[in-house]
Specification:
By secondary structure, the protein is α/β, with parallel strands linked by helices. It has helices at 46-55, 68-76, 89-97, and strands at residues 2-9, 12-13, 22-29, 32-40, 60-62, 80-82. The protein has one domain (2-107): 2-Layer Sandwich (Nucleotidyltransferase, domain 5), CATH 3.30.420. It contains 3 helices and 6 strands, in the order ββββαβαβα. Helix 1 runs parallel beside helix 2. The longest helix is centred in the middle third of the chain and has 10 residues, at 46-55. The radius of gyration is 15 Å and the shape is globular.
């Protein structure tokens, strides 16, 4: 069983996790939802925010933009982070279950996920590295 956290704003993935105030917590078993609940995330300093996720038992955080210091703090408490995601929460969650989150990447996020911008000398357009969300 796993526990997924998605910061929400108006039924969408919150655009910036650092400033998010609400989380949707979804428990999954296999590829099926078991339960869900909403909670507040009022912690404003990064260590407290990372600790709060750990206390909630979160395994994976799916979020929009996130600062590098906060990303490091969350991954250091053994929580997987899938950043740069935007869209309606239900669509994003279903894509996560189908292992198809690529379609919800924020525009311009490729450089943070190992995708190049433009071509290097001798590189063709088809040789860019892909993103693996597994």
């Amino acid at each position: 069983m796993g526990r997924i956290a998605v910061p929400t704003w108006n039924a969408r993935v919150s655009p910036v996790f650092d400033a998010a105030e609400k989380l949707l917590i979804i428990d999954i078993k296999g590829k099926k939802e078991c339960s869900r609940f909403d909670t507040e995330i009022s912690e404003t300093n990064f260590p407290a925010r990372a600790t709060r996720l750990k206390e909630l038992g979160v395994d994976t955080l799916i979020c929009g933009a996130i600062s590098m210091p906060l990303l490091y703090m969350i991954t250091n408490v053994d929580i997987r982070v899938i950043p740069w995601i935007s869209g309606r929460v239900e669509d994003v969650f279903n894509a996560f279950l189908d292992e198809n989150l690529f379609q919800f990447l924020m525009p311009g996020s490729g450089r943070y996920l190992g995708k190049g911008h433009g071509r290097r000398r001798g590189q063709t357009m088809g040789r860019r590295r892909g993103v693996n969300f597994k």
